[in-house]
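#data-curation
PF: Archiving a pair of folding outputs for the training set. Convention for this channel: one message per protein, sequence first, structure tokens after, nothing in between. First:
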Amino acid sequence: MCRNYGIWDFSLLDLGVVLTVSLAAGTVTGWLFYDRLQLGLCISGALFFMAKPRYMRWQLQRRKRILLLQFRDVLYSISSAVSVGRSMAQALEESMDFWKGTYDEKDLIMRELAAMVRQMKEGNARDLDVLKAFAGRSGLQDILDFVMVYENCRTSGADLVKAIDRATGIIGDRIDLERELHMLMAQKQFEGRIIMISPFALLLFLKISSPGFLEPLTASSAGMMVSTAALGLVAASVLLMERVNQFEF
């Protein structure tokens, strides 16, 4: 069954990951800021509902990045096959055979190639139709651009070999650029997360080295308000850093 790359099926494993991380983070936060594990459970519940959509969005972006890089490799084999006179249907089938030594049958692009070849052979579907369906489900502009180039060549009678070769070079360079940008943003996100855990590390150090130093913040209502305000500022800074470092294809 062909997957929709804009939808993430939230499995029991995903639920366990998000729940475990939320419970651990909430419990530690409740202990560090309030010295009360009961409040930590309440924070865990809030973190779970905040983390679930973010986790799903991260998984979707990760899956799309993997598909995009695999599609970049397939582009070159398609271009080579078309340049020696193969049709698009033959190019897709040869690409599937060519990349079997590199990609596993469970890899995204191999599943897509197998599905497209099967639809063309068994269902007599047109190559343009299966490519359009794949591009629409992927939600990736680079794949949509390639299909658009191929469709324009088919309808206008332009030189298919030159057009696909040119499109492959441009799209491949753009994918490489996007990959480099993502690597830079990932580095910035890592630096931001180091800064994010600094307040928690400082509180942990004070809890261990001087347990009574933070007692005024947890023993009175005024101290609890100060702790809440500090936690709110930390949460706001985390959201701001994540927003600034957000990068989508």
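PF: Second:
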Amino acid sequence: MNRMLKKCLFLAGGYGTRFLPATKSMPKEMLPILNKPLIQYGVEEAVEAGLHEIAIVTGRGKRAIEDHFDLNIELQNKLKETGRADTVEALESLIDSCSIAYTRQREMLGTGHAVLTGRVIIGDSPFAVVLSDDLCLNPDKGVLRQLVEVYQRHECCVVAVQEIPGELSNRYGVIDGLLQTDGTYLVHNLVEKPEPQETPSNLGIVGRYILTPEIFDELERTLPGYGGEIQLTDALGVLARTSKVVACRFTGVRFDCGSLPGFVDATNYCYQQE
């Protein structure tokens, strides 16, 4: 089994219903924060972490993602003619620095099902997972890079967590874990969207993971859970009890860009950093 970490799986098959009508014809992952789409921030984060093999699970109406990460000769020539070739240089450099493969999720059956859909590209290797809705920013060391370093120490599944208000626990997967000497948490269990009176901790999972290939077989056995969907947290909970899962409380800022307030906050924050 190959334990070298080189691959990153992006889950981009969802409908983006919270941003309708904008997302009726535009993938939510292509919504721009300033002049750059959400998914590009994620791919840049992956490459910065040394993950140059990008896999993207898409769905119906998501061709704009593939077009974005492709060369456009006509546009390049036009920009060169007008002296503005530098406007796409960063994107072209990013495209050159990684390989990107796509597969389609035909039905939206949950995060766990989306990860399982990516198995055909990922194969028998450990891999990172990014949910582009969660915009994570740290100019010194990206969140994925922080998770990669934790994986290199523990060689097991790693989930990114942050402290959340107790009353918001029913919006997150939440861990039950024990703080370790290196600052990570040994996870005993994960609960999907628990009610505040039932939450095991104040550490909520955000859209960054490192997963080992064992997760695929576990997802195959996972029955629909919260919301009637196949939940990644349920499969990780089994691995936490039978194998090992650790949580990394990352440094940096995170915005829930799947919600309108989070999207506005992210835009304002990035504008202030310009």
